[in-house]
Amino acid sequence: MNKLLKTCTLAGLLLALALTLCIPALAAGETGAAPAAEPTEQAEESASSGKGMASAIAIGLAALGGALGMGLATGKAAEGIARQPEAEGKIRTTLMLGLVFIETAIIYALLVVILIIFVL
């Protein structure tokens, strides 16, 4: 199970890297065109689509990392409770605190993505 998790994590990271490296190629316009003095509608649309792709990748990676972290923490807490049922209260308290910190990191990533979309 642990080997499968590592394989899926590696595959997800490689896919995210490939998508990140493909964005400039997809956003490239005409190669021989002279730069315009003012941004055109096409340039603004291209920038908007780049922001969307970057935001999607960022929130996807944050959600993936958070989901993996929460799953591992919950699994280890269940194992700990199964081994020592008398420590259930302490384990559950520590688990909830850890899950709150993981979720906070995901919310921060969401805020950064919202700033990328609406401010930049």
What this model shows, in words?
With 120 residues, the chain is mainly α. It is built from three helices and no strands. The protein has helices spanning 2-27, 41-83, 88-118. Helix 1 packs antiparallel against helix 2 (41-83) and helix 2 (41-83) packs antiparallel against helix 3. The longest helix has 43 residues, at 41-83. The radius of gyration is 21 Å and the shape is elongated. The two termini are 42 Å apart. The model has no long low-confidence stretch (mean pLDDT 81).
Strand share of the residues? under 5%
Oligomeric form of this entry? single chain
Estimated structural class: mainly alpha
Major beta sheet summary: none
Helix content: over 70%
Low-confidence stretches: none
| Approximate shape | elongated
Number of helices: 3
N- and C-termini, Cα separation: 42 Å
Q: What letter string, H or E per element, gives the SSE order?
A: HHH
Mean pLDDT: 81
Number of strands: 0
The Cα radius of gyration reads: 21 Å
Give a short overview.
By secondary structure, the protein is mostly helical. Helix content is 83%, strand content 0%.
Top keywords for this entry?
0% strand, 120 residues, 83% helix, mainly alpha, single chain, 3 helices
